[in-house]
Each structure stands twice: as structure tokens, then as C-alpha cells.
């Protein structure tokens, strides 16, 4: 994408391959990355993916594109490899990755540096299996002792 | 009132010494020595030693 500035021909050929919906978007909101190649500098448009504060009334106006449409445009752009030309949006891959790292899979404990608590049986499973394994290793010796002590007649250590 | 007579036999629990939590319940005479035997434990899929669990606790 870095050589886009320098090569307007490439931009044109890229535009031919783009989805019409993306094309319409870029025509309406030319990305800052390719604006310098145009002849006259266009006035900076507000980010259509963000809500805007009205200068006079101070009220916030909704974004031009709803979150659903933002997601759809981002998806199309990602498929065609032009996502970085889009304005900043919460639906962008980078933002999504950030959120994924923070929250994980929305299941408590799946984020970075977090731990899933799990059921007690799951937490203690490893220890129990280890205990069982050790008991099975000691089993032949135990059976031998048991046989020597008259099949339980002289056994002292009964389980609780 | 006279106390009810204790039964001659009791049900006992034989726990697997493979520490799998598997057990078998058997009936033995109250005065008999504690039971112990080699039996199959389906958790470890082997014949292992089963020993009678010590009784009491609540009583």
C-alpha cells in the first residue's frame, strides 16, 4: 500500500477491482493516503464512522454509517486488502484485535494474562490423575504386602 | 423402652486403593474382620486391591 502515493495508475487499476460499494465509499470520502495525488486538496471531511458534535448546538449527531454498515465495509475492504485506506472505526481489524486481547472470547479469563477459573473438578483434575498414577505404580507392592499379611488379617492401615 | 437390637450383619464399603473413588458395597457379619479383596476397578481397567473403609464418622 506504501507505493500508492507515487503511482496513480496503480490506484486506478486497484479501483477497477474494488467492490462498487467500496468504490462509492472512497469516492465520497477519499482516503487521506491518496488525496495528495489529486490535483486540488479537498477539505478534510469528518470521519463518517464517528459521531459528530454540532458546532452550534453542541448536540451529537450519529455517524453517517451505522455500526452494522461500518462492519460490512470493513469486511469488504479487508477482503480486498484496502482496509488501511478506511477512516478509523471501532470495527477495524486493529481495534478488534485490541478488544480480543483485552476481553478474550467474552468468556471471563480468556484475555491476555487472564486465567479461566473453571470448575473445581477441572482445577484439581491434574493433581487427582497424578495421585491415581502414583497409586497404580505402588499397587503391585501393596498387593504383595497384602498377600504376605494374610490377605488383610494383619492389615493396619485401613482407608478412612 | 428397650433399645432395638443391632442387626447381625452390616453393609460395608470397599474402596479401590487406586484412589479412583470407585467402591463396592458388601455385607459382612458385624463381628467379622474387615474385608479386603482384589477386584476389578473399571476406572483404571485393572484388578486392584479394595480395602474396607473405616466406619463411623457421623455416629
Automatic annotation (TrEMBL), chain A:
Pfam families referenced in this protein's UniProt entry, alphabetically: Mitoc_mL59
Keyword Ribonucleoprotein: yes
GO cellular component labels: mitochondrial large ribosomal subunit
Domain Large ribosomal subunit protein mL59: from-to ranges: 20-148
InterPro entries in UniProt: Ribosomal_mL59 (IPR037507), Ribosomal_mL59_dom (IPR040922)
Molecular function GO terms recorded: structural constituent of ribosome
Key words of the record: Ribonucleoprotein, Ribosomal protein
Name of the protein in question: 54S ribosomal protein L25, mitochondrial
TrEMBL record, chain B:
GO terms of biological process kind: translation
GO MF entry, a single one: structural constituent of ribosome
Family annotation (InterPro entries): Mitoribosomal_protein_bL33, Ribosomal_bL33, Ribosomal_bL33_sf, Ribosomal_zn-bd
GO cellular component, one term: mitochondrion
Subcellular location per the Swiss-Prot or TrEMBL entry: Mitochondrion
Alphabetical list of Pfam families matching this protein: Ribosomal_L33
Keywords, sorted A to Z: Mitochondrion, Ribonucleoprotein, Ribosomal protein
Main location per the UniProt record: mitochondrion
Segments crossing the lipid bilayer: none
Similarity comment: Belongs to the bacterial ribosomal protein bL33 family.
Record-given protein name: Large ribosomal subunit protein bL33m
Lineage, broadest ranks: Eukaryota, Fungi, Dikarya, Ascomycota, Pezizomycotina
